[in-house]
């Protein structure tokens, strides 16, 4: 009797285990389908298909086909693809689900400022253009406006000045194109500005050794006043600006106050503290000249030690 009961219990538990396994298998639903473009009806490869609320997902093949095992027949599937409108569809116990994705126009409807202050949609342009909002620049400001563009625009290279605050920052678009000037043209509210470096270069006496980098023209732009920055790349983009724009154009549009309420007053302040790594050593024993003789320039090139740039003339304490 005990043996018979033991055998019956064993059979009972075996049947229960089989039923549980069968129930688990039935809970898994295999879904197949194809993702296509809503216009061309061609399959889209690389579309992500995910069961909502889980990490269960799949990616379409080269023909846009997919196969996904979901937890239940009433699951919700999410379909997403770069440049297309994402869709969320309830499965409703279907095992075959084909989806047509429509192209997203959100990223293509951006309005940019082109040559001569004209505003056009990005999707209507036949050349490369990129736009930055003023907030992207004003969040973390640099003293030089050009430095604020570093890492923000594709194809634009920024080299910060080596002499600290107020020095020239070099900017190039799509690499070097000339042995002399590779500066893009800066246009501020429709007015071209000179971005060349300002140096006190001179050939007179010792001043040739005293060149000072006073920075480039674009550093005078206040980042807090910028509403947007549009970068035109290539000759087609900059054709209306002529040869000055052969290295590209950076169009800066400032804020006009149209979106402010009331007086629209804002206050910003920045403080930068730097210390020199190394200072030059100066001698204070000898005057301007050479080999102990004083320098004299008569303007005709015939003076004593004329145009000499050394500072080893007579001693300063010799009573002369």
Quick structural summary:
With 320 residues, this protein is α+β, with helices and mostly antiparallel strands. The protein folds into three domains: 2-101, Sandwich (Immunoglobulin-like), CATH 2.60.40; 111-254, Ferric Hydroxamate Uptake Protein, Chain A, domain 1; 281-320, no CATH class.
Write up what this structure looks like.
- The chain is of the alpha+beta class.
- It has 3 domains: about 1-100, Sandwich (Immunoglobulin-like); about 110-255, TonB-dependent receptor, plug domain (Ferric Hydroxamate Uptake Protein, Chain A, domain 1, Beta Complex); about 280-320, no CATH class.
- It is about 10% helix and about 25% strand.
- The protein contains 3 helices and 20 strands.
- It has helices at about 1-25, 135-140, 235; strands at about 30-35, 50, 55-60, 65-70, 75-80, 85-90, 100, 110-115, 120, 130-135, 155-160, 170-175, 185-190, 190-195, 195-200, 215, 225-230, 250-255, 290, 295.
- The termini are far apart.
Q: Might you state the CATH topology name of the largest domain? A: Ferric Hydroxamate Uptake Protein, Chain A, domain 1
Indicate the CATH architecture of the largest domain: Beta Complex
Strand order of the largest sheet: 10-17-18-13-14
Instruction: Give the count of structural domains.
Output: 3
Number of helices: 3
Net shape: elongated
Biggest sheet record: 5 strands, mixed
Percentage beta strand: 25-35%
Question: Could you give the count of β-strands?
Answer: 20
Given helix and strand content, the structural type is: alpha+beta
Question: How much helicity do the residues have?
Answer: 10-25%
CATH superfamily membership of the largest domain, which one? TonB-dependent receptor, plug domain
Question: Which class of the largest domain in CATH terms?
Answer: Mainly Beta
CA-CA gap between termini: 136 Å
* Overall pLDDT confidence: 76
């Amino acid at each position: 009797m005990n043996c018979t009961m033991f055998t019956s219990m064993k059979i009972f538990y075996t049947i229960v285990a089989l039923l549980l396994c069968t129930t688990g298998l039935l809970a898994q639903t295999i879904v197949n389908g194809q993702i296509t473009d809503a216009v061309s009806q061609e399959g889209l490869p690389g579309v992500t298909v995910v069961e909502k609320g889980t990490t269960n997902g799949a990616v379409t093949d080269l023909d846009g086909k997919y196969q996904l095992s979901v937890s239940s027949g009433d699951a919700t599937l999410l379909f997403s693809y770069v440049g297309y409108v994402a869709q969320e569809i309830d499965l409703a116990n279907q095992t075959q689900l084909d989806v047509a994705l429509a192209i997203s126009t959100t990223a293509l409807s951006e309005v940019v400022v082109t040559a001569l202050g004209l505003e056009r949609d990005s999707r209507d342009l036949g050349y490369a253009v990129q736009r930055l909002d003023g907030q992207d620049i004003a969040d973390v400001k640099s003293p030089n406006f050009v430095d604020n563009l570093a890492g923000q625009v594709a194809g634009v290279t920024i080299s910060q000045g080596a002499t600290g605050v107020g020095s020239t920052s070099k900017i190039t678009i799509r690499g070097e194109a000339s042995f002399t000037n590779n500066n893009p043209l800066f246009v501020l509210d429709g007015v071209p500005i000179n971005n060349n470096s300002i140096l006190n270069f001179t050939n007179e006496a010792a001043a040739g050794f005293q060149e000072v980098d006073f920075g480039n023209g674009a550093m005078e732009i206040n980042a807090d006043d910028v509403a947007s920055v549009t970068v035109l790349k290539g000759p087609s983009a900059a054709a209306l600006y002529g040869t000055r724009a052969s290295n590209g154009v950076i169009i800066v549009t400032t804020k006009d106050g149209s979106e402010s309420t009331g007086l629209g007053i804002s206050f910003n302040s920045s403080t930068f503290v730097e210390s020199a790594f190394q200072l030059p050593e100066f001698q204070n024993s000898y005057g301007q000249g050479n080999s102990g003789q004083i320098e004299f320039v008569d303007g005709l090139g015939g003076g004593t030690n004329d145009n000499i740039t050394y500072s080893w003339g007579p001693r300063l304490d010799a009573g002369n």
